[in-house]
Amino acid sequence: MGVKARLFLMMVLQLAVWGAWAPKLFPYMGMLGFAPWQQSLVGSSWGVAALLGIFFSNQFADRNFAAERFMAASHLLSGLALLFTAFQAEFWPFFAGYLVYSLLYVPTLSVANSVAFANLAEPARDFGAIRMGGTVGWMLVSWPFVFLLGAGAEPQQVRSIFIVAAVVSFALAAYSLTLPHTPPKRGGEAADPLAWREAFRLLRVPFVAVLFVVTFVDSVIHNGYFVMADAFLTQRVGIAGNLSMVVLSLGQLAEIVTMFILGGVLIRIGWKATLIVGVLGHAARFAVFAFFPDSVPVIVAVQLLHGICYAFFFATVYIFVDAAFPEDVRSSAQGLFNLLILGVGSVVASFLFPHLMGRLTTATAAGPQVDYQTLFLVPTGMALVAVLLLALFFRPPQKGPAGPVTP
């Protein structure tokens, strides 16, 4: 198997672990009777993991440990944590298991990117196609739940989301040992021994700082989608509980196409325009959610915008980081942006959107009803603000992929 195919399969398994549980996590916690503050605390676990990851795990992977071995150990242990979490119905044991899983899994997302970049001859051209493997994995792992879950799935069935994720995690742990050897990158005499500190210094570059702020805003919107979408589809739109994950996976189907063309798009229209299109995808999707909730075909079709939202923004950010940061701090630089994408953005979304849903819920004769129109206009407005920031203030020295920048 060629290097690109091996990296592709790595991404398939890496994102399948995440995709197995993500769409159902918040509805499942609701089934267990967890209060909104408890759900928010669980949701903040990835923020804690991303923060600690940049200072410890990614630093360790950058300077001291072969990346593929780091991946193998992390996925073996995180799989065990997922199995533990699956069989906990009380809040504190559940939270402890999920937090341990997060601490072990989240750093591997940036390390997997670094493995891919380190073993691709032309990362800007090829990374989109490799990362498309993650899209395939996320989409494929949703299909078993058509059979594992019923239309009105009970908690005993829904906990299978963690069991399936654990099985994939164990497979990835074994597969990681077959990946191309990716040794630690050691800087020269003058290099800062703390890779994360050197990565933070790049924030003094104005266009990197602007991208950092916009990434935070867009990550809140992106994570908010996973907080709200499954409940919206099942409770407001009327899609069966065992089909909602399949409907959500249509976004990954579109992502396959956008990932495949991403390299060419970056070369033709450049960093700024590609990022703006990605953020506009979020605005359009939430606007449709707000104004067309009674049209099932429209709601299903708009899931296809997820491909633009992810590939044209987040995958572009990862490629930009690889192009902009020095080689010996790239895992930490990926971790720096993962701190926003998976960490701070996840924490803010986990507190903000459950709080808004509670505020916008009213009691009716038919049961609690959420004012989804007002709810979805919040992320729509946030996305438009992010677009303005990019359009006015993001000015990288090169229009498209080029050489690294210095602080």
TrEMBL record:
SUPFAM superfamilies: MFS general substrate transporter. It is a multi-pass membrane protein. InterPro entries: MFS_dom, MFS_trans_sf, Nuc_H_symport. Residues 204-407 form the Major facilitator superfamily (MFS) profile domain. Pfam families: Nuc_H_symport. It is found in: Cell membrane. The chain crosses the membrane at residues 43-61, 73-92, 98-120, 132-152, 158-177, 205-225, 245-267, 274-292, 298-321, 333-353, 373-394. Keywords: Cell membrane, Membrane, Transmembrane, Transmembrane helix, Transport. Signal peptide: none annotated. One of its GO terms (molecular function) is uridine transmembrane transporter activity. Gene3D superfamilies: MFS general substrate transporter like domains (1.20.1250.20). One of its GO terms (cellular component) is plasma membrane. It comes from the Bacteria. This is Putative membrane protein. The lineage of its organism: Bacteria, Pseudomonadati, Pseudomonadota, Alphaproteobacteria, Caulobacterales.
